[in-house]
Amino acid sequence: MEELEGKLPESIEEALTPAAFIESHRAQFHKAQKQLADHLQQEEIIKQRDNFKALAEPAVGEIKSLNDTQASILRNRAALEAKRDRLLQELSQVNQAIDTADHDLSQIPPAIAKLEKDKQKHARQAYQLHKSLRPIPGSSADNNQVIENIDQICLRAIKVIREALGLL
């Protein structure tokens, strides 16, 4: 370069001088090239990351929706289980009431049979007593009057005897 120094127009010399020492910029050049490649790679990674984030966003919304649905279903399931437990308890009470009704119903036929037997026995006794009845002439009022009259006669006789004994 020294040989050409001063012989070339200044503008060309200004352009060639740094080119003559280009080797001294080699490490800097390679570093800049690597950094450019790294920047391009980073930009590509960022683009891919953003693409994956964009692809993930619907999944995030869907996951939230499914989590909300799952929570709702779990609440509904818990309510249904509570309802089932109440219904099972009510069913148990109904079954107990049916068992009690069945027991009560099973007691009725023997009770009716016993009462029927007692009724027959009492009816036979009443019939036997009825057969032993005989017609009695006169009424109770007439008979009471007769007894009253006889009692009066007896009382008068006792009175007369007492009076007569009192004179002796």
Main pleated sheet: none
Element string (H = helix, E = strand): HHH
- Annotation field: number of helices: 3
Which band does the percent of strand residues land in? under 5%
Describe the structure.
The protein is mainly alpha-helical. The protein has one domain (29-133, 140-167). It has 3 helices and no strands. The protein has helices at residues 10-20, 26-132, 140-167. It is rod-shaped, with a radius of gyration of 67 Å.
SSE topology sketch:
Layout: H1 10-20, H2 26-132, H3 140-167
Task: Give a short synopsis of this structure.
With 168 residues, the chain is mainly α.
Task: List its salient traits.
168 residues; 3 helices; mainly alpha
